[in-house]
Design goal:
The structure holds 2 protein chains of 2 kinds. Chain A is about 80% helix and about 0% strand. Chain A has 11 helices and no strands. The longest helix of chain A has about 30 residues. By secondary structure, chain B is mostly helical. Chain B has 2 domains: about 55 residues; about 40 residues. Chain B has 5 helices and 2 strands; from the N terminus they run αααββαα. The relative contact order of chain B is 0.07. Classes of the chains: A mainly alpha, B mainly alpha.
């Protein structure tokens, strides 16, 4: 689920009572919800042609949902390995920003950085920044959420991929429609969670990108139209950096 | 396939590491921040479009469109994400089973 989606979700589900209890309750809830989502990732990945082991490797080592979905989506559409890698990396670029904002909050020691980095995702970032009263609370929120999502995400992946590989034809279950629905679900919070002017910009970028990709479908090999659509984001960010105030972006 | 899984996993991990290791000023530039915020919107929207309407390099309108429509309705009703996906898959499977759309 998107960063902003989780912020909304948490504000609705926050429990009263001790802060650490509320952190752990939220972390567990987020983990279970993400794990359920991972079921569909596991199934879609196997339907896209990856093996159960390859699917699990993505959840264990890549561990960032949108990039994983994009990677198997491009492979499944016949886009090839290079385009799949580049698309996954472009989608993962936002994790650099998350890590950047988390650095001063979590202040990880050198030896903590490797696993802190692995757990840096939408959900753990949202929780760490939500419970920012103290370094201790932020760290507790970050690691509780990161670990909870890591465990449930991998369990969900395994169940989903094993379940789908047991079927003779996963396409019968409409899994090819589950893929765009999954992307839309990841996109949705980014279109609806901001201020109305922010949302309008996001919708503009989204519609323009979708339109450009559609126009390019007949001319480019599968996977490339999506990569070219990133130009819309580049153009929009150059255009809007001149016309709007810095405080608007988050 | 294994090579690309390894490279993509390593690459996304390095992206996460960079944020902790690089000097703050490098990623804090407003233009970089803005672009990284917009990239997922662009890519996800394009992925939705392509995964719904493309079949190799041709346009193809089939039962996936119905699935996406159902997903939109589910999202508007603030359904949990898993429900959105299951509803999309189930409606697509159903319409195919009924033989109304390929």
């Amino acid at each position: 689920m998107g960063w902003m989606g989780w912020m909304g979700w948490m504000s609705n589900h926050r429990k009263s009572g001790g802060e650490s209890q509320s952190i752990h309750t939220n972390a567990l809830g987020i983990g279970i919800a993400t794990g359920a989502y991972a079921l569909s990732f596991g199934a879609i990945s196997v339907a896209s042609g990856l093996s159960v082991l390859q699917t699990q490797s993505l959840s264990l080592f890549m561990f960032t949902g949108a990039s994983q979905f994009a990677f198997v989506g491009v492979i499944g559409a016949g886009g090839g390995a290079v385009i799949a890698v580049v698309t996954a990396l472009l989608l993962g670029a936002r994790n650099s920003l998350y890590a950047l904002s988390l650095g001063p909050v979590l202040t990880p020691k050198k030896k903590e950085v490797p696993y802190t980095a692995l757990l840096t995702i939408d959900e753990s970032t949202a929780m760490a920044l939500r419970y920012n009263a103290s370094r201790k609370a932020s760290r507790r929120a970050f690691f509780a959420t990161g670990l909870s999502v890591y465990v449930f995400w991998n369990i969900g992946t395994a169940l989903g991929s094993l379940g789908a590989s047991a079927l003779s034809d996963p396409g019968v279950l409409g899994l090819d429609a589950a893929i765009p629905a999954g992307f839309l679900a990841l996109l949705w919070p980014r279109l609806t969670a901001g201020s109305s002017s922010e949302n309008r910009k996001m919708w503009t970028v989204a519609v323009a990108s979708a339109a450009l990709a559609m126009i390019l479908i007949p001319f480019l090999r599968p996977g490339l139209p999506v990569l070219f659509s990133a130009l819309v984001a580049v153009a929009a960010s150059l255009l809007w950096s001149k016309t709007s105030t810095p405080a608007e972006e988050n | 396939m294994w090579a690309s899984i390894l490279i993509a996993s390593l690459g996304t991990y390095v992206e996460k590491l960079l944020g902790y290791l690089l000097p703050q000023a490098m990623l804090e530039r407003e233009s970089v921040r803005r672009m990284t915020g917009l990239l997922p919107v662009s890519l996800l929207a394009a992925l939705v479009a392509v995964q719904t309407f493309a079949s190799d390099q041709a346009f193809l309108i089939d039962a996936r469109v119905l699935g996406l429509g159902v997903a939109v309705v589910a999202l508007l009703l603030r359904a949990p994400f898993l429900v959105v996906i299951i509803a999309a898959a189930a409606s697509t499977a159903l319409i195919r089973w009924l033989g109304w759309m390929p």
